[in-house]
Structure formats: C-alpha cells, structure tokens
Amino acid sequence: MKTETTTKRILTFGNRQIPYRIIRKQRKYLRILVEPNLQVTIYAPTNAEDCKINEFLHKKAFWIMQKLDYVKTFHPLPPPREYINGETFRFLGRQYRLKIEQGNHSPAKLRGRFLYVMISDKHDYAKAKELVTAWYRLQAEHTFHRITRKCSEITSRHEVPAASIRLRKMRTRWGSCNSKNIITINTNLIQAPIHCIEYVIMHELCHLKHHNHSKSFYKLLSICMPDWKIRKELLQKVVIPE
Fold first, then answer.
1. Domains of the chain, first to last
2. How far apart are CA 138 and CA 10, in angstroms?
3. What pLDDT digit, counting tens, does each position of 164-215 carry?
4. Using an 8 Å Cβ cutoff, are 98 and 90 in contact?
C-alpha cells in the first residue's frame, strides 16, 4: 500500500525566506519542483533522512531562487477559464476565440480563427467546457501519435526501443516515461507550438535509452534534435490557463 506524507518548512537563503513542502512517497530519488504558482516542492523517498534532504536542498538553493525569479516574470498568471463566448483558447501555439452557438449538441470544430461549440443552452458553460475538453483530447491523440511516429524514426537509428504513448492531464509535467517503454504526455501540451511538442516527445523517447539526465542522455538528444535548447526555451514561456 502506497503512503504519502507532506511537511511544510522554510528555506533561508541570504535575506530570503522561501516556503517549501516535502512530499515523501514511493520513489527512488530526490526531486525539486518549482510550480507556476511559485510553490516549491521536494519529492523524496519515504525513507529519505532529513539530513540528506537538507543537504540536497541547500545545494540547490541558488537554483531554486533563480527558478522562482524566472517564474515570476510570467506573473500574473492567466485567470481560470470560464468557457464563455469570445474567450481565447490556444491550439498548437495559435490563439482562437470560442464561439458558442445554440442548437443540437455537436463536437467542437475549428473554423478560421474560431473554435465553434454548438449546445442547446448558450449559457451552459459546463457543457461548453465538456465539448472543448473532448476536442482538445481528440486533437492531442492524433497530433501526439503522429509526432511520436516521426520522432521514433530518428531515435530508432540510435538503439532507442519502440514506445507506446498515453495521454493524461498533468499539473506539473509536460511528459514522463517508465521502464515499460511507455511515455505519457500532458494533454495540455496540444496548446503549445508544434516545435515544443516535438521537443517533449523526443526528450521522453531519449529517456527510454538513458533513464537520467546524464551526459549520455544529452548527447543522444543533441544528435536526434540539434536545436532542442531553442525549443526548450520556447516551451518554458508557455503558460496554460487552468
């Protein structure tokens, strides 16, 4: 049975007081995450000693401060979506306006610069959200599978095993992979430019051969996608509304 505990603490760095939380769970390594809302989280194995966590945290203190300052440049964050007429939605990096029309329910459709939704009650925003979410999911399935096939043609030349792909909405990651050669991609990534999507998928495919961020991993990534640093920088500027 998996257990998870959360502890809140304060990191002092110079004259700054940085709140953070430690989440202990079933995992092998320590990981630090700075979220868009400026929440700092340390993910630690359940049996990790406090002294090891503190040592790791203080080694990363300057990086945490830099990351927080960088994330702040994107504030204020976009407000939560309301799924109302005229609201802006992103698809493959481009902006579209939501157009809600009254009629029999039908799948959302992209026409010109508008994302059209047909519902029986124009003020049923919950239904509008349901249809838009379903549309995003469908587009993500088609796009991510197509890009995975394209990227796999490159990685297969470098002894990277074939991968299966699954989609899931994730709050803090664009993608992940596991030892079963399954890569998971955040459905929200469909809102980012195509070059960013290709970067995330190529990144995860390379992890199927190198399950870390070692020099060997980055060497493989650079061979498979020479401009990955530019793509990563572009992705870091992508902010997805809730």
1. 5-72 (no CATH), 88-235 (3.30.2010.10)
2. 42
3. 999 998 877 899 988 899 999 999 999 999 999 999 999 999 999 998 889 9
4. no
